[in-house]
Amino acid sequence: MNFKQNVVNALVAALGADLSAADITAAIEVPKTSDLGDYAFPTFALAKLYHKAPKAIAEDLVAKIDATPFQDVRPVGGYVNFFLDKVSYAHSVLTTIAADPAHYGDQTLGAGNVPIDMSSPNIAKPMSMGHLRSTVIGNALANILKKVGYSPIKINHLGDWGTQFGKLIVAYRLWGSEADVRRDPIHYLVKYYVQFHEEAEKDPSLDDQARAVFKQLEDGDQEVHALWQWFRDESLKEFTRIYDMLGVSFDSFNGEAFYNDKMDAVVQELEDKHLLKESQGAEIVDLSAYDLNPALIKKSDGATLYMTRDLAAAFYRHQQYDFVQSLYVVGGEQREHFDQLKAVIKEMGYDWADDIHHIPFGLITSGGKKLSTRKGNIILLERVLNDAIALAKKQIAEKHPDLANADEVAHQVGVGAVVFHDLKNERLDSFDFNLEEVVRFEGETGPYVQYTNARANSILSKTAVQPAAEVALTDASAWDVLKLLGDYPNVVARAAKAYEPSIIAKYALRLAKAFNKYYVNTKVLVDDAELPARLAMVKATSSVLTAALALLGVAAPAEM
Ligand code: ARG
Protein backbone atom coordinates (compact mmCIF):
# COMPACT_ATOMS: atom_id res chain seq x y z
CA MET A 1 0.00 0.00 0.00
CA ASN A 2 2.93 2.30 -0.58
CA PHE A 3 1.66 5.02 -2.88
CA LYS A 4 4.68 7.23 -2.38
CA GLN A 5 6.81 4.37 -3.70
CA ASN A 6 4.82 4.44 -6.98
CA VAL A 7 5.76 8.08 -7.33
CA VAL A 8 9.42 7.35 -6.59
CA ASN A 9 9.45 4.49 -9.11
CA ALA A 10 7.94 6.65 -11.83
CA LEU A 11 10.58 9.34 -11.23
CA VAL A 12 13.45 6.84 -11.11
CA ALA A 13 12.37 5.49 -14.50
CA ALA A 14 12.17 8.98 -15.98
CA LEU A 15 15.39 10.38 -14.46
CA GLY A 16 17.64 7.38 -15.05
CA ALA A 17 21.01 7.75 -13.34
CA ASP A 18 20.66 11.49 -12.79
CA LEU A 19 19.25 11.23 -9.25
CA SER A 20 19.21 8.32 -6.79
CA ALA A 21 15.98 6.80 -5.47
CA ALA A 22 16.96 7.89 -1.97
CA ASP A 23 17.43 11.51 -3.07
CA ILE A 24 14.13 11.43 -4.91
CA THR A 25 12.35 10.02 -1.87
CA ALA A 26 13.81 12.73 0.34
CA ALA A 27 12.87 15.49 -2.12
CA ILE A 28 9.21 14.56 -2.57
CA GLU A 29 6.81 16.95 -0.86
CA VAL A 30 3.14 16.86 0.02
CA PRO A 31 1.28 19.89 -1.41
CA LYS A 32 -0.63 22.07 1.06
CA THR A 33 -4.03 21.31 -0.47
CA SER A 34 -5.10 18.23 -2.39
CA ASP A 35 -6.29 20.23 -5.43
CA LEU A 36 -2.55 20.66 -6.12
CA GLY A 37 -2.03 16.91 -6.10
CA ASP A 38 -1.02 14.34 -3.49
CA TYR A 39 2.74 14.42 -4.00
CA ALA A 40 5.01 16.98 -5.62
CA PHE A 41 8.55 16.65 -6.89
CA PRO A 42 10.57 19.91 -7.01
CA THR A 43 12.92 20.29 -9.99
CA PHE A 44 15.00 23.23 -8.76
CA ALA A 45 17.92 21.05 -7.70
CA LEU A 46 18.21 19.67 -11.26
CA ALA A 47 18.52 23.09 -12.91
CA LYS A 48 22.34 23.11 -12.73
CA LEU A 49 22.70 19.60 -14.10
CA TYR A 50 20.38 20.14 -17.05
CA HIS A 51 21.21 23.81 -17.69
CA LYS A 52 17.50 24.50 -17.89
CA ALA A 53 14.86 26.41 -15.98
CA PRO A 54 13.00 24.32 -13.34
CA LYS A 55 9.71 24.94 -15.14
CA ALA A 56 11.05 23.50 -18.42
CA ILE A 57 12.51 20.51 -16.56
CA ALA A 58 9.11 19.83 -14.95
CA GLU A 59 7.47 19.87 -18.39
CA ASP A 60 10.10 17.53 -19.89
CA LEU A 61 9.74 15.13 -16.98
CA VAL A 62 5.96 14.96 -17.28
CA ALA A 63 6.36 14.04 -20.95
CA LYS A 64 8.68 11.17 -19.98
CA ILE A 65 6.78 9.80 -16.93
CA ASP A 66 4.57 6.75 -17.36
CA ALA A 67 1.32 8.09 -15.86
CA THR A 68 -0.65 4.83 -15.95
CA PRO A 69 -0.69 4.23 -12.15
CA PHE A 70 -1.90 7.78 -11.51
CA GLN A 71 -5.03 9.79 -12.09
CA ASP A 72 -2.90 12.63 -13.41
CA VAL A 73 0.70 13.89 -13.54
CA ARG A 74 1.05 17.61 -14.20
CA PRO A 75 3.79 20.28 -14.30
CA VAL A 76 3.05 23.16 -11.91
CA GLY A 77 5.84 25.77 -12.06
CA GLY A 78 9.05 24.12 -10.90
CA TYR A 79 7.21 21.03 -9.66
CA VAL A 80 5.87 17.79 -11.05
CA ASN A 81 2.59 17.18 -9.26
CA PHE A 82 1.18 13.67 -8.90
CA PHE A 83 -2.51 12.94 -8.42
CA LEU A 84 -3.10 9.45 -7.06
CA ASP A 85 -5.76 7.21 -8.47
CA LYS A 86 -8.43 7.83 -5.85
CA VAL A 87 -10.48 4.73 -6.42
CA SER A 88 -7.61 2.27 -6.07
CA TYR A 89 -6.22 4.27 -3.13
CA ALA A 90 -9.57 4.14 -1.32
CA HIS A 91 -9.84 0.44 -1.98
CA SER A 92 -6.36 -0.30 -0.77
CA VAL A 93 -6.61 1.78 2.44
CA LEU A 94 -10.07 0.60 3.45
CA THR A 95 -9.44 -3.10 2.87
CA THR A 96 -6.14 -2.91 4.76
CA ILE A 97 -7.76 -1.29 7.80
CA ALA A 98 -10.83 -3.54 7.76
CA ALA A 99 -8.66 -6.68 7.59
CA ASP A 100 -7.00 -6.01 10.97
CA PRO A 101 -7.99 -2.68 12.54
CA ALA A 102 -6.15 -3.24 15.83
CA HIS A 103 -2.81 -3.83 14.10
CA TYR A 104 -3.10 -1.23 11.37
CA GLY A 105 0.11 0.79 11.50
CA ASP A 106 2.16 -1.91 13.25
CA GLN A 107 5.71 -1.96 11.91
CA THR A 108 9.28 -2.86 12.83
CA LEU A 109 11.52 0.15 13.28
CA GLY A 110 13.59 -1.66 15.88
CA ALA A 111 13.55 -4.32 18.60
CA GLY A 112 14.83 -4.87 22.12
CA ASN A 113 14.25 -3.56 25.62
CA VAL A 114 13.68 0.13 26.21
CA PRO A 115 13.41 1.08 29.89
CA ILE A 116 11.42 4.30 30.22
CA ASP A 117 12.02 6.26 33.41
CA MET A 118 8.72 8.09 33.84
CA SER A 119 6.45 9.82 36.35
CA SER A 120 8.94 9.43 39.24
CA PRO A 121 7.23 11.75 41.73
CA ASN A 122 8.74 12.60 45.07
CA ILE A 123 7.51 10.86 48.20
CA ALA A 124 5.76 13.04 50.79
CA LYS A 125 4.75 15.57 48.17
CA PRO A 126 1.54 15.64 46.20
CA MET A 127 1.81 14.63 42.60
CA SER A 128 1.65 17.87 40.67
CA MET A 129 0.74 18.80 37.12
CA GLY A 130 4.46 18.67 36.43
CA HIS A 131 4.54 14.94 37.12
CA LEU A 132 1.46 14.49 34.97
CA ARG A 133 3.52 15.41 31.92
CA SER A 134 6.17 12.80 32.63
CA THR A 135 3.50 10.17 33.35
CA VAL A 136 1.40 10.68 30.24
CA ILE A 137 4.30 11.35 27.85
CA GLY A 138 6.12 8.27 29.16
CA ASN A 139 3.00 6.14 28.88
CA ALA A 140 2.29 7.31 25.32
CA LEU A 141 5.91 6.72 24.28
CA ALA A 142 5.72 3.19 25.71
CA ASN A 143 2.60 2.52 23.59
CA ILE A 144 4.12 4.07 20.46
CA LEU A 145 7.47 2.27 20.80
CA LYS A 146 5.68 -1.02 21.33
CA LYS A 147 3.73 -0.48 18.12
CA VAL A 148 6.97 -0.11 16.16
CA GLY A 149 8.61 -3.23 17.58
CA TYR A 150 10.36 -2.35 20.84
CA SER A 151 9.74 -3.82 24.31
CA PRO A 152 9.24 -0.86 26.63
CA ILE A 153 9.68 -1.23 30.41
CA LYS A 154 7.93 1.46 32.43
CA ILE A 155 9.95 2.39 35.49
CA ASN A 156 8.74 4.70 38.23
CA HIS A 157 11.99 5.99 39.73
CA LEU A 158 10.30 7.25 42.90
CA GLY A 159 12.01 10.16 44.62
CA ASP A 160 12.10 8.28 47.90
CA TRP A 161 15.62 9.14 49.03
CA GLY A 162 17.70 12.26 49.53
CA THR A 163 18.32 15.19 51.84
CA GLN A 164 14.67 16.27 51.61
CA PHE A 165 13.83 13.35 53.90
CA GLY A 166 16.22 14.78 56.43
CA LYS A 167 14.27 18.04 56.23
CA LEU A 168 10.92 16.32 56.46
CA ILE A 169 11.86 14.23 59.44
CA VAL A 170 13.33 17.22 61.28
CA ALA A 171 10.16 19.20 60.52
CA TYR A 172 7.90 16.35 61.60
CA ARG A 173 9.72 15.98 64.89
CA LEU A 174 9.55 19.72 65.57
CA TRP A 175 6.00 20.57 64.48
CA GLY A 176 4.30 17.34 63.41
CA SER A 177 1.44 15.41 64.89
CA GLU A 178 1.05 11.70 64.34
CA ALA A 179 -2.74 11.98 64.38
CA ASP A 180 -2.70 14.66 61.68
CA VAL A 181 -0.45 12.62 59.42
CA ARG A 182 -2.66 9.57 59.86
CA ARG A 183 -5.74 11.58 58.96
CA ASP A 184 -4.46 13.37 55.86
CA PRO A 185 -0.89 12.30 55.16
CA ILE A 186 0.32 14.25 52.15
CA HIS A 187 -1.46 17.42 53.14
CA TYR A 188 0.35 17.55 56.48
CA LEU A 189 3.70 16.31 55.18
CA VAL A 190 3.67 19.11 52.61
CA LYS A 191 2.73 21.59 55.31
CA TYR A 192 5.74 20.56 57.41
CA TYR A 193 7.98 20.71 54.38
CA VAL A 194 6.85 24.22 53.44
CA GLN A 195 7.23 25.27 57.06
CA PHE A 196 10.76 23.87 57.12
CA HIS A 197 11.80 26.08 54.22
CA GLU A 198 10.26 29.17 55.81
CA GLU A 199 11.94 28.53 59.14
CA ALA A 200 15.27 27.55 57.61
CA GLU A 201 15.49 30.94 55.94
CA LYS A 202 15.57 32.48 59.41
CA ASP A 203 17.55 29.68 61.07
CA PRO A 204 20.12 28.04 58.78
CA SER A 205 21.10 25.54 61.50
CA LEU A 206 17.94 23.63 60.56
CA ASP A 207 19.61 22.70 57.29
CA ASP A 208 22.55 21.24 59.19
CA GLN A 209 20.17 19.18 61.30
CA ALA A 210 18.43 17.94 58.20
CA ARG A 211 21.73 16.87 56.65
CA ALA A 212 22.63 14.99 59.82
CA VAL A 213 19.28 13.19 59.91
CA PHE A 214 19.59 12.16 56.28
CA LYS A 215 23.04 10.78 57.06
CA GLN A 216 21.42 8.74 59.87
CA LEU A 217 18.86 7.47 57.40
CA GLU A 218 21.60 6.39 55.00
CA ASP A 219 23.42 4.71 57.87
CA GLY A 220 20.31 2.69 58.74
CA ASP A 221 19.13 4.33 61.96
CA GLN A 222 15.99 2.39 62.91
CA GLU A 223 13.77 5.14 64.22
CA VAL A 224 14.53 7.46 61.33
CA HIS A 225 14.05 4.61 58.87
CA ALA A 226 10.63 3.74 60.32
CA LEU A 227 9.42 7.30 59.81
CA TRP A 228 10.72 7.26 56.26
CA GLN A 229 8.95 3.96 55.56
CA TRP A 230 5.69 5.31 56.90
CA PHE A 231 5.86 8.46 54.79
CA ARG A 232 6.69 6.36 51.71
CA ASP A 233 3.81 3.91 52.21
CA GLU A 234 1.25 6.69 52.66
CA SER A 235 2.52 8.57 49.62
CA LEU A 236 2.47 5.54 47.39
CA LYS A 237 -1.15 4.91 48.33
CA GLU A 238 -2.06 8.37 47.07
CA PHE A 239 -0.03 8.04 43.90
CA THR A 240 -1.64 4.70 43.11
CA ARG A 241 -5.06 6.31 43.31
CA ILE A 242 -4.04 8.81 40.65
CA TYR A 243 -2.37 6.23 38.39
CA ASP A 244 -5.59 4.20 38.56
CA MET A 245 -7.57 7.25 37.46
CA LEU A 246 -5.19 7.83 34.56
CA GLY A 247 -5.13 4.12 33.70
CA VAL A 248 -1.33 4.09 33.77
CA SER A 249 0.58 1.09 35.12
CA PHE A 250 4.28 0.47 35.77
CA ASP A 251 6.61 -2.49 35.43
CA SER A 252 8.80 -1.31 38.31
CA PHE A 253 8.61 1.01 41.29
CA ASN A 254 12.31 0.79 42.05
CA GLY A 255 12.95 4.31 43.27
CA GLU A 256 16.04 6.05 44.51
CA ALA A 257 16.16 4.11 47.79
CA PHE A 258 16.42 0.85 45.84
CA TYR A 259 19.93 1.87 44.79
CA ASN A 260 21.13 2.43 48.31
CA ASP A 261 23.19 -0.76 48.35
CA LYS A 262 24.20 -0.44 44.70
CA MET A 263 26.07 2.84 44.86
CA ASP A 264 29.28 1.63 46.53
CA ALA A 265 30.21 -0.49 43.54
CA VAL A 266 29.86 2.47 41.16
CA VAL A 267 31.78 4.80 43.44
CA GLN A 268 34.47 2.14 43.79
CA GLU A 269 34.76 1.78 40.01
CA LEU A 270 35.04 5.55 39.63
CA GLU A 271 37.82 5.47 42.17
CA ASP A 272 39.60 2.52 40.49
CA LYS A 273 39.47 4.38 37.19
CA HIS A 274 40.96 7.47 38.89
CA LEU A 275 37.98 9.57 37.95
CA LEU A 276 37.12 10.89 41.43
CA LYS A 277 38.61 14.20 42.45
CA GLU A 278 38.31 16.04 45.72
CA SER A 279 36.83 19.49 45.67
CA GLN A 280 36.13 21.36 48.92
CA GLY A 281 35.87 18.06 50.74
CA ALA A 282 33.34 16.62 48.27
CA GLU A 283 34.05 13.98 45.63
CA ILE A 284 33.44 14.98 42.06
CA VAL A 285 34.05 13.82 38.49
CA ASP A 286 35.61 16.55 36.40
CA LEU A 287 33.68 17.00 33.15
CA SER A 288 35.35 20.09 31.75
CA ALA A 289 36.31 18.05 28.66
CA TYR A 290 32.55 17.88 27.96
CA ASP A 291 32.00 21.55 28.69
CA LEU A 292 29.95 20.54 31.72
CA ASN A 293 30.06 21.37 35.39
CA PRO A 294 31.60 18.64 37.56
CA ALA A 295 29.29 15.80 38.61
CA LEU A 296 28.88 15.68 42.39
CA ILE A 297 29.23 12.08 43.57
CA LYS A 298 29.62 12.40 47.34
CA LYS A 299 29.13 15.27 49.72
CA SER A 300 31.77 16.26 52.25
CA ASP A 301 29.91 14.31 54.97
CA GLY A 302 29.95 11.20 52.77
CA ALA A 303 26.24 11.39 51.89
CA THR A 304 25.35 10.28 48.38
CA LEU A 305 23.43 12.35 45.91
CA TYR A 306 20.75 12.24 43.24
CA MET A 307 23.54 11.75 40.69
CA THR A 308 25.07 8.83 42.56
CA ARG A 309 21.73 7.07 42.65
CA ASP A 310 21.11 7.75 38.97
CA LEU A 311 24.52 6.29 38.12
CA ALA A 312 23.73 3.14 40.06
CA ALA A 313 20.31 2.99 38.38
CA ALA A 314 21.81 3.35 34.89
CA PHE A 315 24.21 0.43 35.52
CA TYR A 316 21.47 -1.66 37.08
CA ARG A 317 19.18 -1.11 34.07
CA HIS A 318 21.94 -1.88 31.63
CA GLN A 319 22.75 -5.13 33.37
CA GLN A 320 19.14 -6.11 34.11
CA TYR A 321 17.55 -5.25 30.75
CA ASP A 322 20.46 -5.19 28.28
CA PHE A 323 18.69 -2.20 26.75
CA VAL A 324 18.92 -0.91 23.19
CA GLN A 325 17.85 2.54 24.42
CA SER A 326 17.29 3.89 27.91
CA LEU A 327 14.89 6.81 28.15
CA TYR A 328 14.34 9.38 30.90
CA VAL A 329 11.13 11.38 30.56
CA VAL A 330 12.07 14.25 32.86
CA GLY A 331 11.54 18.03 32.68
CA GLY A 332 13.90 20.18 30.64
CA GLU A 333 15.26 21.82 33.78
CA GLN A 334 17.21 18.60 34.47
CA ARG A 335 19.01 18.65 31.12
CA GLU A 336 22.42 19.23 32.63
CA HIS A 337 21.96 16.40 35.11
CA PHE A 338 21.40 13.89 32.31
CA ASP A 339 24.22 15.33 30.20
CA GLN A 340 26.47 14.79 33.21
CA LEU A 341 25.13 11.28 33.80
CA LYS A 342 25.95 10.28 30.23
CA ALA A 343 29.34 11.96 30.37
CA VAL A 344 30.38 10.16 33.57
CA ILE A 345 29.43 6.77 32.09
CA LYS A 346 31.30 7.68 28.91
CA GLU A 347 34.37 8.63 30.99
CA MET A 348 34.18 5.23 32.63
CA GLY A 349 34.65 3.78 29.15
CA TYR A 350 31.14 2.54 28.34
CA ASP A 351 29.81 3.29 24.87
CA TRP A 352 26.27 2.38 25.87
CA ALA A 353 26.17 5.86 27.38
CA ASP A 354 25.18 6.90 23.85
CA ASP A 355 21.98 4.84 24.15
CA ILE A 356 20.79 6.93 27.09
CA HIS A 357 18.36 9.62 26.01
CA HIS A 358 16.89 12.33 28.15
CA ILE A 359 13.39 13.10 26.81
CA PRO A 360 12.81 16.60 28.18
CA PHE A 361 9.54 18.49 28.25
CA GLY A 362 8.39 22.05 28.98
CA LEU A 363 6.75 23.50 32.07
CA ILE A 364 3.08 23.72 32.86
CA THR A 365 2.32 27.13 34.28
CA SER A 366 -0.80 28.38 35.97
CA GLY A 367 -1.81 31.97 35.41
CA GLY A 368 1.62 32.46 33.85
CA LYS A 369 3.43 31.36 37.05
CA LYS A 370 5.77 28.42 37.49
CA LEU A 371 4.47 25.69 39.79
CA SER A 372 6.58 24.83 42.79
CA THR A 373 5.88 22.65 45.82
CA ARG A 374 8.23 24.58 48.01
CA LYS A 375 6.46 27.88 47.59
CA GLY A 376 3.08 26.23 47.99
CA ASN A 377 2.01 27.19 44.43
CA ILE A 378 0.83 23.81 43.25
CA ILE A 379 -2.07 22.53 41.25
CA LEU A 380 -3.02 19.18 42.67
CA LEU A 381 -3.39 16.64 39.93
CA GLU A 382 -6.15 14.72 41.66
CA ARG A 383 -8.21 17.88 42.08
CA VAL A 384 -7.70 18.76 38.42
CA LEU A 385 -8.84 15.30 37.32
CA ASN A 386 -11.91 15.40 39.55
CA ASP A 387 -12.83 18.89 38.35
CA ALA A 388 -12.42 17.76 34.74
CA ILE A 389 -14.69 14.78 35.34
CA ALA A 390 -17.33 17.01 36.94
CA LEU A 391 -17.16 19.42 34.00
CA ALA A 392 -17.46 16.56 31.51
CA LYS A 393 -20.47 15.25 33.41
CA LYS A 394 -22.19 18.61 33.16
CA GLN A 395 -21.66 18.79 29.41
CA ILE A 396 -22.79 15.22 28.84
CA ALA A 397 -25.97 15.90 30.83
CA GLU A 398 -26.73 18.80 28.48
CA LYS A 399 -25.90 17.02 25.23
CA HIS A 400 -27.03 13.49 26.00
CA PRO A 401 -29.27 13.44 29.11
CA ASP A 402 -30.33 9.80 28.68
CA LEU A 403 -26.84 8.32 28.23
CA ALA A 404 -26.82 4.97 30.02
CA ASN A 405 -23.32 4.80 31.55
CA ALA A 406 -22.93 8.56 32.03
CA ASP A 407 -20.55 8.30 35.02
CA GLU A 408 -18.14 6.01 33.26
CA VAL A 409 -18.19 8.17 30.14
CA ALA A 410 -17.69 11.35 32.20
CA HIS A 411 -14.59 9.74 33.69
CA GLN A 412 -13.25 8.80 30.25
CA VAL A 413 -13.97 12.24 28.86
CA GLY A 414 -12.72 14.28 31.82
CA VAL A 415 -9.50 12.35 32.35
CA GLY A 416 -9.03 11.95 28.59
CA ALA A 417 -9.37 15.71 28.16
CA VAL A 418 -6.55 16.44 30.60
CA VAL A 419 -4.29 13.77 29.10
CA PHE A 420 -5.00 14.80 25.52
CA HIS A 421 -4.40 18.46 26.25
CA ASP A 422 -1.02 17.64 27.71
CA LEU A 423 -0.02 15.47 24.75
CA LYS A 424 -1.22 17.69 21.93
CA ASN A 425 1.34 20.28 22.97
CA GLU A 426 4.77 19.66 21.57
CA ARG A 427 6.81 18.04 24.27
CA LEU A 428 9.25 20.92 24.69
CA ASP A 429 6.64 23.66 24.65
CA SER A 430 5.54 25.19 27.92
CA PHE A 431 1.86 25.88 28.29
CA ASP A 432 -0.58 27.44 30.67
CA PHE A 433 -3.24 25.21 32.15
CA ASN A 434 -6.87 26.30 32.04
CA LEU A 435 -9.39 23.62 32.86
CA GLU A 436 -12.34 25.19 31.03
CA GLU A 437 -10.38 25.20 27.80
CA VAL A 438 -9.22 21.63 28.22
CA VAL A 439 -12.65 20.03 28.63
CA ARG A 440 -14.43 21.86 25.80
CA PHE A 441 -16.22 19.65 23.28
CA GLU A 442 -15.25 21.91 20.37
CA GLY A 443 -11.86 23.10 19.21
CA GLU A 444 -8.59 21.24 19.52
CA THR A 445 -9.52 19.04 22.46
CA GLY A 446 -9.64 15.38 23.42
CA PRO A 447 -13.43 15.48 23.88
CA TYR A 448 -13.73 16.78 20.29
CA VAL A 449 -11.88 13.70 18.99
CA GLN A 450 -13.86 11.39 21.28
CA TYR A 451 -17.10 13.03 20.18
CA THR A 452 -16.20 12.56 16.53
CA ASN A 453 -15.59 8.88 17.13
CA ALA A 454 -18.94 8.55 18.92
CA ARG A 455 -20.60 10.30 15.98
CA ALA A 456 -19.04 7.80 13.55
CA ASN A 457 -20.33 4.96 15.72
CA SER A 458 -23.80 6.41 15.80
CA ILE A 459 -23.87 6.57 11.98
CA LEU A 460 -23.00 2.88 11.83
CA SER A 461 -25.70 2.02 14.36
CA LYS A 462 -28.39 3.78 12.31
CA THR A 463 -28.35 1.29 9.44
CA ALA A 464 -28.59 -2.45 9.04
CA VAL A 465 -26.35 -2.28 5.96
CA GLN A 466 -22.94 -3.80 6.64
CA PRO A 467 -19.75 -1.87 5.81
CA ALA A 468 -17.87 -3.41 2.88
CA ALA A 469 -14.38 -2.14 2.14
CA GLU A 470 -14.30 -4.11 -1.12
CA VAL A 471 -16.99 -1.98 -2.77
CA ALA A 472 -15.47 0.82 -4.88
CA LEU A 473 -15.66 4.26 -3.29
CA THR A 474 -15.59 6.97 -5.97
CA ASP A 475 -16.85 9.75 -3.68
CA ALA A 476 -14.42 12.64 -4.30
CA SER A 477 -15.43 14.46 -1.11
CA ALA A 478 -14.04 11.56 0.94
CA TRP A 479 -10.53 12.13 -0.34
CA ASP A 480 -9.09 14.15 2.59
CA VAL A 481 -10.32 11.55 5.08
CA LEU A 482 -8.96 8.65 3.02
CA LYS A 483 -5.58 10.25 2.62
CA LEU A 484 -5.30 10.80 6.37
CA LEU A 485 -6.35 7.21 7.03
CA GLY A 486 -3.65 6.02 4.62
CA ASP A 487 -1.05 8.19 6.32
CA TYR A 488 -1.51 6.72 9.83
CA PRO A 489 1.43 4.27 9.65
CA ASN A 490 3.78 7.11 8.62
CA VAL A 491 2.47 9.25 11.47
CA VAL A 492 3.18 6.49 13.99
CA ALA A 493 6.71 6.12 12.62
CA ARG A 494 7.37 9.85 12.84
CA ALA A 495 6.09 10.01 16.42
CA ALA A 496 8.31 7.08 17.42
CA LYS A 497 11.43 8.50 15.81
CA ALA A 498 10.96 11.93 17.37
CA TYR A 499 9.73 10.60 20.76
CA GLU A 500 6.84 12.99 20.16
CA PRO A 501 3.28 11.95 21.12
CA SER A 502 1.98 15.34 19.93
CA ILE A 503 2.40 14.06 16.35
CA ILE A 504 -0.28 11.45 17.09
CA ALA A 505 -2.54 13.92 18.91
CA LYS A 506 -2.35 16.48 16.11
CA TYR A 507 -3.05 13.75 13.58
CA ALA A 508 -6.15 12.66 15.52
CA LEU A 509 -7.37 16.27 15.46
CA ARG A 510 -6.77 16.53 11.70
CA LEU A 511 -8.59 13.27 11.03
CA ALA A 512 -11.52 14.28 13.26
CA LYS A 513 -11.76 17.64 11.51
CA ALA A 514 -11.63 16.10 8.02
CA PHE A 515 -14.26 13.55 8.97
CA ASN A 516 -16.62 16.18 10.42
CA LYS A 517 -16.24 18.27 7.28
CA TYR A 518 -17.06 15.25 5.15
CA TYR A 519 -20.03 14.38 7.31
CA VAL A 520 -21.49 17.89 7.15
CA ASN A 521 -21.21 18.02 3.34
CA THR A 522 -22.10 14.46 2.38
CA LYS A 523 -25.17 12.34 2.93
CA VAL A 524 -23.56 9.16 4.17
CA LEU A 525 -26.66 7.09 4.78
CA VAL A 526 -28.24 7.39 1.30
CA ASP A 527 -29.13 3.93 0.08
CA ASP A 528 -27.09 3.56 -3.10
CA ALA A 529 -24.44 1.18 -4.43
CA GLU A 530 -21.64 2.96 -2.58
CA LEU A 531 -23.30 2.96 0.85
CA PRO A 532 -21.34 -0.09 2.09
CA ALA A 533 -18.08 1.56 0.99
CA ARG A 534 -18.97 4.84 2.71
CA LEU A 535 -19.81 2.89 5.85
CA ALA A 536 -16.44 1.15 5.56
CA MET A 537 -14.79 4.55 5.57
CA VAL A 538 -16.82 5.67 8.60
CA LYS A 539 -15.83 2.48 10.36
CA ALA A 540 -12.17 2.86 9.41
CA THR A 541 -12.23 6.43 10.74
CA SER A 542 -13.61 5.20 14.04
CA SER A 543 -11.00 2.41 14.24
CA VAL A 544 -8.11 4.75 13.54
CA LEU A 545 -9.36 7.50 15.89
CA THR A 546 -9.80 4.89 18.63
CA ALA A 547 -6.34 3.44 17.97
CA ALA A 548 -4.68 6.87 17.93
CA LEU A 549 -6.37 7.82 21.21
CA ALA A 550 -5.33 4.48 22.71
CA LEU A 551 -1.70 5.19 21.84
CA LEU A 552 -2.04 8.40 23.83
CA GLY A 553 -3.66 6.58 26.75
CA VAL A 554 -7.08 8.14 26.11
CA ALA A 555 -10.28 6.08 26.05
CA ALA A 556 -12.79 6.30 23.18
CA PRO A 557 -16.35 5.85 24.49
CA ALA A 558 -18.75 4.41 21.90
CA GLU A 559 -21.40 6.96 22.85
CA MET A 560 -21.20 10.31 24.58
N1 ARG B 1 11.95 12.66 41.34
C1 ARG B 1 12.47 13.58 40.36
C2 ARG B 1 11.66 14.86 40.36
O1 ARG B 1 10.49 14.86 40.69
C3 ARG B 1 12.47 13.01 38.96
C4 ARG B 1 13.30 11.76 38.78
C5 ARG B 1 13.58 11.49 37.36
N2 ARG B 1 14.29 10.27 37.12
C6 ARG B 1 15.58 10.08 37.31
N3 ARG B 1 16.09 8.90 37.08
N4 ARG B 1 16.36 11.02 37.76
O2 ARG B 1 12.20 15.90 39.98
CATH architecture of the domain at 395-552: Orthogonal Bundle
Computed over alpha carbons, the radius of gyration is 28 Å
The major β-sheet equals: 4 strands, parallel
**Which assembly state applies to the chains in this document?**
single chain
CATH homologous superfamily heading of the domain at 395-552? Isoleucyl-tRNA Synthetase, Domain 1
Number of helices: 21
Which distinct ligands sit in these coordinates? arginine
Find the count of extended strands (DSSP E, 2+ residues): 13
Euclidean distance between termini CA atoms? 34 Å
Output mean pLDDT.
93
**Shape by Cα distribution:** globular
Strand order of the largest sheet: 5-4-9-10
Flag low-confidence runs.
Answer: none
Residue share in helix: 40-55%
Broad structural category? alpha/beta
> What proportion strand?
5-15%
CATH class of the domain at 395-552: Mainly Alpha
Find the CATH topology of the domain at 395-552.
Isoleucyl-tRNA Synthetase, Domain 1
Account of the 3D structure:
This protein is α/β, with parallel strands linked by helices and 560 residues long. Among the domains are: 3-84, Arginyl tRNA synthetase N-terminal domain (Gyrase A, domain 2); 395-552, Orthogonal Bundle (Isoleucyl-tRNA Synthetase, Domain 1). The protein is built from 21 helices and 13 strands. Strands 5-4-9-10 form a 4-stranded parallel β-sheet, with helices on both faces. A hairpin with a 2-residue loop joins strand 11 (364-366) and strand 12 (369-370). The model has no long low-confidence stretch (mean pLDDT 93). Bound molecules: arginine. The site of arginine has 10 residues, from helix 13.
